[in-house]
Design brief:
2 copies of one chain form a homodimer. Chain A has 107 residues and is mainly alpha-helical. Chain A has one domain: Arc Repressor Mutant, subunit A (Orthogonal Bundle). Helices cover 56% and strands 11% of the residues of chain A. Chain A is built from 5 helices and 2 strands. Chain A has helices at residues 11-22, 26-37, 46-49, 54-66, 85-103, and strands at 70-75, 78-83. A two-stranded antiparallel sheet of chain A has the order 1-2. Chain A starts with 10 loop residues before the first helix and ends with a helix. The interface between A and B is large, with 44 and 44 residues. The first copy, chain A, binds a DNA duplex (30 and 30 nucleotides) through helix 4.
Chain lengths: 107, 107
Amino acid sequence: MGVSKSESFSVAHNEMASLFKALSHPARVAIVEYLLSVDTCICGDIVEVLPLAQPTVSQHLKELKNANIIKGSIDGTAICYCINPDTIEIIEKYFGSINKQLKNKCC
Amino acid sequence: MGVSKSESFSVAHNEMASLFKALSHPARVAIVEYLLSVDTCICGDIVEVLPLAQPTVSQHLKELKNANIIKGSIDGTAICYCINPDTIEIIEKYFGSINKQLKNKCC
DNA sequence: TTATTATATTGCAATATTACGATAAACAAA
DNA sequence: TTTGTTTATCGTAATATTGCAATATAATAA
């Protein structure tokens, strides 16, 4: 068939996979790191930083927003994007927990 | 066009994106968590745990191996898979660093 | 050698993602 | 209102991913 069998997996596994999928493109990694590098959250110039056209950047931003990795608030004509620290913490803790479990293993 | 413009991004951004891509499917998240849950590393029964056919599981395992998230060593007829703790640590540190930088921010 | 068992590869159909031009929508300024 | 600025959406082409039947490969057992 070829259809992704996501219904066959647990909600938890799907949720984690969705987070990673949102970060699975270099443009989206670059966006996150750019948001991290600027002091303020007024980030209407992401398009100028990336080697992609405006509609493409808008699409990537939407995916990051849908995954709750970034937040966007309207600021007049512009939109103010910033990283959602809660989601970053969820991911960090996930890998921290994996690491802890690995410490008690042979491998 | 539609081709992924990965050459336009830095090696570092591509490398992180590749790690996340390897974890961007619920089956691959499930595999990692299963490897974590079993005591030994002899894991030739992953196929029986997942709701996917053997060639599909083999394909997912290959992707995790290529991304260095798991290691596989031959053990007679079977193959012994286990998580690569080095890669997990790289990811954990990446998000730890993001978290640290976020602490010194307004947002 | 001939099974048997375990994993990998091939080939292909179904679907998803990526990218961007064109266009729309929303708002501010003139 | 009209004009300019900023971001989003639509439509579509190119490419990538997912899943599996069929088959291949590799090692062991009989």
